[in-house]
Specification:
About 50% of the residues are buried. The strands form three sheets. Strands 1, 2, 3, 6, 7, 8, 11 and 12 form an eight-stranded mixed β-sheet that branches. The protein has a two-stranded antiparallel ribbon with strand order 4-5. By secondary structure, the chain is mainly β.
Length: about 270
Amino acid sequence: RRVRCPQHLTDISGSVPEDDGEFPTAEGADVLAPTPAPAPTSSTSSMSSMSSTSFLAPTVQAPTITTTTTTTTMITTDPIAWATGTWTTGYWDCCKPSCAWPGKGNVEKPVRSCDAVSGEVVDDPNEPSVCQGGRAATCKNNKPFNVSETLSMGFAAAATSGAHGLSGDENCGQCFELRFTDQVHKDGGGWPWGGADPSVVGKRMVVQVTNIGYDVTGDHSFDLQIPGAGQGIFDQGCKKQFSGHKSGDFDCDNNYGGGGGASGGGR
């Protein structure tokens, strides 16, 4: 279901929905959380201009650090009601978040991106993505964090299918509360995936939409930003942001699934 964005998340992303006050606060989301990594300082240096775009679950032992899906609940036509039977995956590709581009969502300002070299916040929302030859990348502090034993927070790419209130760009900056279940999801071929790892069943996560998952459709609701969970098609951004590493170091050479556990494959 959609909820009011916690300050823990908006302090990191720098983006607040204009209609945020119309939605309920997720239980426990307004308590003081362990302080996540501070937002990078803003850079006044000018950036190069080229071309275009791109595309995080709990560190409560992430619900699955692979593209094996975790079943969750979220929203329907009633923006405050719960929907059931949706499922999530994980990714981290270091690219500039799609919602960091101007003109996306009903927000005060776009979400932040960071300079792939300096780590500072990028001032120009039109700076191209590191995955497209530019310098704008995902900020390192976008990794998920725990608020309590049963609640975590982070960021996610939203579906574009129109199902469950998720349609892409207009969801930029919005926050959703997820509840992890043990329900198994079957893909088009009947192969079972999920549900959530037993360690997170019944636990919740509040995510802010900072990216758009153009391949996230149907009952697949969110692609959660989790370091090591797979770079997907954009497998060159992380090695540009973190020099001295090979692309495979960031997901154990498994672009769709990642390291496969809390250890992230040990690399």
